[in-house]
Structure formats: structure tokens, C-alpha cells
Specification:
By secondary structure, the protein is α+β, with helices and mostly antiparallel strands. It has a single domain (1-331), classed as Peroxisomal Thiolase, Chain A, domain 1. It has eleven helices and 14 strands. The strands form four sheets. A five-stranded mixed beta sheet has the order 1-9-14-13-12, with helices on both faces. Strands 2-8-7-5-6 form a five-stranded mixed beta sheet, sandwiched between helices. The chain binds coenzyme A (COA).
Length: 331
Amino acid sequence: MRTAQHLPVEVAGLGSYLPERILSNHDLEAIVDTSDEWIVPRTGIRERRIAADEQATSDLAVAAARRALQDAALTAKELDVILVATCTPDHLFPATACLVQAAIGPTDAMACDLEAACSGFVYGFVYASGLIASGMADNVLLVGAETLSRVTDYTDRRSCILFGDGAGAAVLRRTRNGGELLYAELGADGSRPEILEIPAGGTRLPASHQTVDERRHYMQLQGREVFKLAVNKLIELMQRIPEQTGIGLDEIKMVLPHQSNVRIIKSALERSGLEMEKAYMNIDTVGNTSAASIPLAMAEAAACGKLQRGDLALLLAFGGGLTWGSALIRY
Ligand code: COA
């Protein structure tokens, strides 16, 4: 499946959680050879949150999930499905979603993880919508949660400045109040995995003394390459909205982009004829939180009243895999 149109699904509730510890650009200056003056204009990031030693991804996810359930006025028992989008699960298995299920229960909702890196929340939104539209589920808890600090190489200044930890959650349900998934498109290109990867720790290169010594359990990225590909793909995704739906980009109230880099978003939006003000940005305080970034931004935008019921919002993501996706919703 590449696209979907007019699915009767709405966001019933949103929640988010950020760990308390702040790692600022000035803190990073003490760790690697970098500076606030280098980081801010190139990325838009000023600080990011870092999970406490005893916190893993499911802990962040549970905190966000509880808030989303409360916002939706729903109990865990009423959930049919729990999806956690993450590339930093607590374990290879069991799924982080199963740990979330146990913590927020009692519920016998099916639970599994979804790994599409930074596009995970948009992928999850479409999966959840398909389950609801097909009648297999009425209520889905979708969480995007990451503890990227555990796989960030704090000796590599090209990557360690980018990433942070956090979780955002949405309760999706069959439409009651006029919400809708108007259009969605997902895609992937798996031919160049090395552009953005954690080389070791899976079955291709299991953990060994050598992989640890060579720092191969950390994220490695070809930043320039990702930057170019991301801008071009985001422009393509936006172009297809009016072509496929007849809805002009100017009718969209808010773009909720994956917070990868402020320059990526600005360049993609401006080349699509949109003002940067259309995008809800919080990268300055949270950095790149991969699958958590869109629900974190969405929950924040709704909480401060910038995203309101009835608004058209465009979720937009590009990330590791490579994967990408767009979802145009009536909130
Ligand atoms: N502080 C100071 N200097 C730095 C630096 C830092 N944190 N990081 C890189 N540099 C230096 C490099 O060493 C290089 O110097 P050199 O030419 O003397 O070797 C120079 O700055 C340019 O490096 P480059 O990596 O080409 O920088 P860039 O302009 O592409 O910016 C990113 C780097 C990471 C900010 C940018 O490429 C980016 O945001 N890419 C996408 C991020 C991404 O992959 N996100 C994950 C998926 S969404």
C-alpha cells in the first residue's frame, strides 16, 4: 500500500513526556569540540532532554500513554491495539508495546512495536487507521518513544548534537466528532541502509568485544546525504497533497514535521511555497527525537491551543530505512 484516502479516524487524545535532565549546547561544548554558535544556525537545536539512568523507552512511553488516555477520557481496558513506534526499544524482545501494555493495564489489547525510525509515528498512524477503518479495532494507542541518548556516540560531534529522548502518544478512534485521515502516503528505499544506521547489535553483526571497541553500537549517519534526500522527499510528499486531494497547501492550518533539522524543514516548506510559520517547531528544546518527535510536537501544539479541533494538519516525516510518510488529518 502506498496511499490511503478518507479513513474515518480521529485523534481522541494526546499526551507527551520529556525526561527532566537537560543537555544544552553549552554542556556539549565540554564533551566534544563544538559550540552553540555552530549548532544553532545549522540545526535550530539549543538543548535536548536525556533520560535518567533508570529510565528506558517503555518508561517514557508509559508516561505519555497515560496522559493521552486521560486526555481521551478512555481507560486502558477500552483499547484494542497498542503500537509503539521506536528504534530504541527496551529489548530486542519482548516488544516495548507489551511492556507498556502491562504498565497501563489491565488490558488485553494486542501490542507490538513498529520500526520505521523517524517515520515511525506516521507509519503507525496509517496502520492504526487501517485497523480502525477495517473494523478490527475501535481504539488504538499509538506511542512514539525513543531513548536515543543510549545509542548516541558522544565522541562524534557530527551526530551527538542532534538527538534527544522523549515520548508522545495519541489515542486514535473511529470518528465521532468529525475528525478524519484525509490522505496518507508511505514509502521506503532500503537500498542505502548505511546512510543512517546502527551497524551492530542485531543478527548481522552481533555484540562482541570488537563491535564495542569499534563503537559500532552507536548511530552513524551521513548527515549531508540525509539532508539532501530529506528535503527532496518532503517536497515531493507535499506536492502530491493538492494533486491527490484537491486540497491546496494554503488550506492546511499546520504542518507537523519530524523535527530533524530546522534548515531541512525551512528549505522543504519554502520550496513548496509555504511560510516557515506554518510549521510547528519545538526542535530548539527537544532536538531530534526520531519517532517521538511528531507526537511530541502535536501534543504541545494542541496543549497551547495552536492546533484546534477541525484544523487541517499535515504530518510529515523522513528518516532511517530510508523511510518517509505524510498524513493529512482533520484534527
Ligand atoms: N561542531 C563543530 N563543527 C562541526 C560539528 C559540530 N557539532 N559537526 C560537524 N562539524 C564540522 C565538520 O567536522 C566539518 O568540518 P571539516 O570540513 O573541517 O571536516 C564541517 O563542520 C562540515 O561538516 P558537515 O557534516 O558537512 O556539516 P553539515 O553542514 O552537513 O551539518 C548536520 C551537519 C548533521 C547538522 C546536517 O548534515 C544535518 O542535519 N543532516 C541531517 C541530520 C540527520 O541525518 N538526521 C537524522 C535523520 S532525520
